[in-house]
Amino acid sequence: MGNGGPVVHGYPHLETVRSAITALYRRLSYDTVHTFATSVAPADVAFSDQDDLHMGAQRVARELVRHYRLPDARMIVSFREMEHAASVELAAGPEYFIELNDRFRTHRRDIGAALAHEVMHVYLHRLDLSFPGTRDNEILTDTAATYLGAGWLLLDAYREDAASSQKLGYLTPEEFGYVLAKRSVAFGEAPETWFTSAQAYTAYTKGLAQVRRDEQQPPLTAAGWAGRRRYAKDRRYAQDHGMRGPAPAGPYSFSAEGPQGRGGLRVAFPCPTCHQRIRVPVRGRVRARCGLCRTVLECDT
Ligand SMILES: [Zn+2]
Ligand SMILES: [Zn+2]
């Protein structure tokens, strides 16, 4: 887990974040994802500077092991001087050694955030789910931790004032907010009251706005007027030019159906919940159901 440096904002990793959500649904299935309907409760990972350091860290690690349902896994947490914020040794188990940066000795309230990330590494390791390259794999880890109910702690560890800033994990605050908002919508949760950090709350509201934009892309019926107009123009172009024209700028794409395209046009677009691509025929109002996350999609194609 990274440490320090200026805080990056916005959505530089958005495509990888979306791929990570799709990969989670594919690897875990809808049913398993939905066993994580309840997030880690703030009280269960609370850690004050008066608590015993080692006993407290073990207690919070056990709580995360329980949350991620790693029945026989045991986390051995230790502290040392290191460049990174934290790291975990991914061995065969059942014992896993997690090292936390010495600075957490005096920042105990953020130990839950660091462990939410490191224990998720163990979870993904046991699932044998990874993305190639360190950067993408770390984004997968933060996204999975957040989507499965523990990563809000990582967002809440983000604090910024005139003198200093702190952020844990690889996602930007807005990206953490985005994944958390995706989760809130999918599970009907309201994490607004959990935050101790005002900046984290703000990042969550920005992420939620981005989630609403995903839900308002054509051909979804919730699309706004400008999007629908652009979509109609792109569709007309695809109908007139077949697949010879340039690809539309929107998140959707058109393709010909059947042999020699005689069956008419189809449109493909990302599911706003899991981002798997959905393909439906172009014929006005269409109701589709995403096979991966089971979201019902009202479309005007
Ligand atoms: Zn990591
Ligand atoms: Zn879906």
Please render the helix and strand layout as text.
Blueprint lengths: L13 H20 L19 H15 L6 E7 L5 E3 L6 E7 L9 H17 L6 H14 L4 H5 L2 E2 L4 E2 L6 H15 L10 H17 L10 H17 L11 E4 L8 E6 L6 E5 L3 E5 L6 E5 L1
Parallel strand pairs: 1-3
Antiparallel strand pairs: 2-3, 4-5, 6-7, 7-8, 9-10
Helix pairs in contact: 1-4, 2-3, 3-4, 4-6, 6-7
One zinc ion binds next to helix 3 and helix 4.
Explain what the structure shows.
The protein has 301 residues and is α+β, with helices and mostly antiparallel strands. The protein has eight helices and ten strands. Helix 1 packs across helix 4. The longest helix has 20 residues. The model has no long low-confidence stretch (mean pLDDT 93). Bound molecules: zinc ion (2 copies). The site of one zinc ion has 8 residues, from loops.
Keywords:
three-stranded antiparallel beta sheet; binds zinc ion; 301 residues; three-stranded mixed beta sheet; elongated; 8 helices; alpha+beta; 15% strand
Helical amount: 25-40%
Average pLDDT: 93
Return Rg in Å: 22 Å
Strand ordering within the main sheet? 1-3-2
Number of strands: 10
Class from helix and strand fractions: alpha+beta
Number of helices: 8
How far apart are the termini?
A: 44 Å
The shape, in one word, is: elongated
Q: Indicate the proportion of strand residues.
A: 15-25%
Q: Helix and strand string, N-terminal first?
A: HHEEEHHHEEHHHEEEEE
* Biggest sheet record: 3 strands, mixed
Bound molecules: zinc ion
